Amino acid sequence: MKLFKQNYTKKRKYVSWRFVIIALLIILQLVFTFGLIMLLGNKYAFVQIMFFILGIILLIFIINKPQPASHKLPWLFIFLLMPVAGLFIYLAFGKTILPKKQLKRFNKDGIDCSKYLVQNKSASERLSQANLDGWAMTQYVSNTTLLPFYNNSSCHYLPSGESFFERLKQRLNEAEKYVFLEYFILSEGKMLDEIIEILINKVNSGVKVFILYDDIGSMKYLPMHFDAKLRSLGINCYKFNRFLPIISAIHNNRDHRKIAVIDGKYAFTGGINIGDEYINVENRFGHWKDCAIEIEGEAINNFVVMFVQLYNLFAPQALEVNNYFYKGQPVLSSGYVQPFGDGPKPLYSSRIGQQLFLNIIHNAKKYLYITTPYLIVDYSIIEALDMCAKRGVDVRILTPHVPDKKAVFALTRSNYMPLIQAGVKIFEYEPGFIHSKTIVCDDNVAFVGTINFDYRSFVHHFECGALLIENSAIFDVKQDFLQTVTKNGIMQTKQTAKLTLMQKLQKNFLGLFAPLL
After folding, report:
1. What sign for the dihedral angle of Cα 112, 114, 117, 120?
2. What is the tally of structural domains in the chain?
3. Long-range contacts of range 201-208, CB-CB < 8 Å, 24 or more positions apart?
4. Are residues 67 and 83 in the same domain?
5. Tell me, what CATH number does 432's domain have?
6. What's the domain range around 472?
7. How far apart are CA 241 and CA 213, in angstroms?
8. What is the SS3 assignment for 418?
């Protein structure tokens, strides 16, 4: 069944009128707010004094917040330029504001799930003896997410969007009980149409299908009422954080996760969304290189928990998580895997992705290979990579050669020089855009997931991934990196990384506000 009349080589654009209306409404709100501030301030001196005092109090609060200085500097700059207006800008965009009902539901589901997800003590003892550094990483993740690690689940690395798509279709066709799909982007086209056709057939045969997709992430790729259309076909489909044209920081917190769970038997995660560029049917930025990982066994339960926690925030009928756990026999595996989620405060107490990445970097002894579409990080990551290379570790980073966002690409490239000077080898993926998010280190630690090396992933977005320790799939992640770099990598040098005066000015300006973007 085809939901869209589509020429797959030239994707239809849905959005002009919708984005224009949204932009106009937000601009009108900004004009009205700042106009009211100016009017009141000019007419009543005490109002301006009151706003100024409140701004100073808020500034002191920001300075004393327990967060990196790089996250405070943009706000200090804004308050310096616009003391009164800065107060309203911060209140509108500077804080993560979640409805109390959602916060209560999220925490309740997390506590309920912790009753079912109990760490296997013998597995923990074996890992602590085999790889103490790796065990310490799993403890950090467990203590911050309540999600354990497993030694009874197999991992299969999928090195391209095409291989992921074929495997996903195979598993969807095998579904007998239920399907969970959670994606940042659903985009009309061949990939989505084929998946929806399978899902409709499954619904007609009694399989329960649940879909959660990010509204802003998918807004320019789908019709406005796509979720309602799927619900009319029997698919339980809802938007994450439905976008409303109001000024609010809540729009900053997007669901960047990519999760598929089938029958509690198989789960997938990685960088791949549901859209034709991810399988190279559509060519927007040259060849698109991406990856995913398939997990079979009890570790799937962590993905079930992650999906249910967010799905229950937006669906009218909540799911009971224990109805969807893995109920099969233990799966033979060589090593350990820990699927986990990350997200903004106050839902998550720590920047889990950033801290885990720093932990891996600090513990690297022989080599450290990183694949990321964006390299927009604070000084702590740059310094950690610098120290890693200087202590003799073979540090290599693979980024795109063809950008998807020019300003973001400029910030990524602006970080090349200090890393190259420290001995880090940086390569760009010559055929086009690389969207994989992987880390592999010393043949015994790897990460595959959705987390980029940028502020949006570390601070604002809901993310997920799989930490692999002493796992056989680590070798496949490593081989994919080496083969890609050898065949398609353009090594950057001090000469190619040198910035022009204009690029330096751009870097300094954009870099100041990068933590807010």
Report:
1. negative
2. 3
3. 202/172, 202/175, 203/233, 203/234, 203/235, 204/234, 207/175, 207/176, 207/177, 207/178, 207/179, 208/177, 208/178, 208/179, 208/236
4. yes
5. 3.30.870.10
6. 352-516
7. 9
8. helix
Q: What is the dihedral of CA 199, 452, 103, 243, to 10 degrees?
A: -60
Say how many C-beta atoms besides its own lie within 10 A of residue 437's C-beta.
27
β-pairing verdict for 367-371 and 394-400? parallel
Which tokens in the block code for residue 226? 């796509």
Per residue of the chain (517 residues), what is the pLDDT tens digit?
555 444 433 444 545 566 666 667 767 766 776 676 667 666 666 666 777 777 777 777 777 777 666 677 777 777 777 766 666 667 666 666 566 676 777 777 666 777 789 899 999 999 999 999 999 999 999 999 999 999 999 999 999 999 999 999 999 999 999 999 999 999 999 999 999 999 999 999 999 999 999 998 998 889 888 999 999 999 999 999 887 766 655 667 899 999 999 999 999 999 999 999 999 999 989 999 999 999 999 999 999 999 999 999 999 998 999 899 998 887 877 899 999 999 987 778 889 999 999 999 999 999 999 999 999 888 889 999 999 999 999 999 999 999 888 888 888 998 999 999 999 999 999 999 999 999 999 999 999 999 999 988 998 899 999 999 999 999 999 999 999 999 999 999 999 888 777 777 777 777 666 666 6
The closest alpha carbon to 336, from 132, 149, 476, 124, belongs to 149
Judge if 59 and 41 occupy the same domain.
yes
Asked if residue 380 is part of any domain, the answer here is yes
Strand 425-429 and strand 394-400: the pairing is parallel
Please, what is the angle between helix 100-114 and helix 300-314, to 10°? Answer: 160
Q: Could you please report the per-residue DSSP string of 200-255? A: HHHHHTT-EEEEEEEHHHHTTTS-TTHHHHHHHTT-EEEEES---SS--GGGG--B
Q: Is 79 helix (H, G, I), strand (E, B) or coil?
A: helix
Backbone angles phi, psi at 427, to 5 degrees: -120, 150
> Same domain for 479 and 401?
yes
Residues 309, 303: Cα–Cα separation, whole Å: 10
Nearest to 235 by CA among 175, 293, 292: 175
376, β-bridge pairs: 454
CA–CA separation, 87 and 40 (whole Å) = 15
Domain final position from 69, 93, 117: 93
Classified as helix, coil or strand, 464 is: strand
Distance CA(230)–CA(234), nearest Å, equals: 7
